[in-house]
Amino acid sequence: MSQEIRNLEPKVLWNKFADLNTVPRPSKKEERVIEFMKDFGNSLGLETFEDEIRNVIIRKPATAGMENRKALVLQGHLDMVHQKNADTVFDFDTQGIDMYIDGDWVRARGTTLGADNGLGVATIMAILESKDIPHPAIEALFTIDEETGMTGALNLQGGILKGDILLNLDTEEDDEIGIGCAGGIDVTATAEYDEEETPEGSVGYTIKVKGLNGGHSGMDIHKGLGNANKIMNRLLFDGFDNFGLQIAEINGGSLRNAIPRESTAKVIIAAVYDEAFVFDMQQIVNEIKAEFQTTEPNLEVVFEKLDAVPATVMPPIAQFYFVRAMYTAHNGVYRMSADFDDLVETSNNIAKVEVGGGKFSVKCLTRSSVESSKFDLANALRSAFELMGCEVEFSGSYPGWSPNPKSEILDVLVSIYEKQNGEKPNVAACHAGLECGILGINYPDMDMISFGPTIHGAHSPDERASISSAQKYWKFVLEILKNIPVKN
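Structure tokens predicted for Cytosol non-specific dipeptidase (488 residues):
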């Protein structure tokens, strides 16, 4: 990791981020970062503990003169999305993130950066460690597993937190103040099929869809980006209908909350169709590239003939239903909000597709700020896959966060932002899943707000954090701490 990162301003923020990025912290494998955070709190002599689900809470008393202010909860999540480019050799379980500076951006070499939500966590760490930053009484809440289930927030019990105001430091545009967010639900379709032997006289191909941007399946779902699983299915659908293509394997996408960037399939066709198949596929690829030339200029589809033909494949009748169910399943924006301009209300991300060995699964993340609409789309997906005989499971449902028009802390943040920047902030709800809505179940009277520095490309290896924005954000944070309202 470049020492230059630690020399960036504000140094207290970037040094804590650099410390954090030495610790592997994938979702559902947060043991090391939990211990790291507990050691950090204990080293400062602060009250530090973990709850039953292993969220970490650290308490720091108010600085002199701030004892009459409302108690503050500073909240961020410890886990990060682990994504890397296919040609990047990197072990997320053992290696720290390799960061570097690129103009105004901090990036990682071939992997996600962990700025989501590492910069928020680093902010809280810097405040906890400080001896010269005025602030009210603070409870630092570091939740686990935000990225793959929100289980830390979902299992935080009522009564643990004593604060009146919660600042969630997990928004990714520095001119935005978040007052609401979407909820979500995982939709998983699975089925089994009896494999059949590959017909004699067949040739095998590997098809690779790659070079897509990927991105956050909430914040980026409206951008018209390509979904590798849907693009792959277009190729398989045409190959099956016109040349009797049969699928041996598919491996597309990875995490539910990341728009899939890559998909690989192994297929067979009759040798007699070999030349016509390649020609036809290239025509379709050219059409798809033309469609996505603006949003996905680096899209590639590669066909490579296999030296060894797969021994078994999906039978035609199973494949008939599979490719049609995949075509029917909605991906992308389902409905825009009628109440907020340019806000996605409901969407779906067909995140991961696995086929092979007589089994297949399709994993989706459906999001919505309206519960009824969330389940409407989830049931539409369920219907598409149940019609082909799949078992469909709903899991990990979490609620959205409804805006509070009477938020006292919102008025404080808007006023400070205007004074510091000479313009109004963008006060908005977002389509990502923030933990505020979940935390509000057990803490309904807590005044909550979300903000953060500018981070682009979250959940993809193109993730990058703006250096100038971090400076603007840090100045904002310090002024907010000075202006927390007095107790009633």
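The chain has a mean pLDDT of 95.
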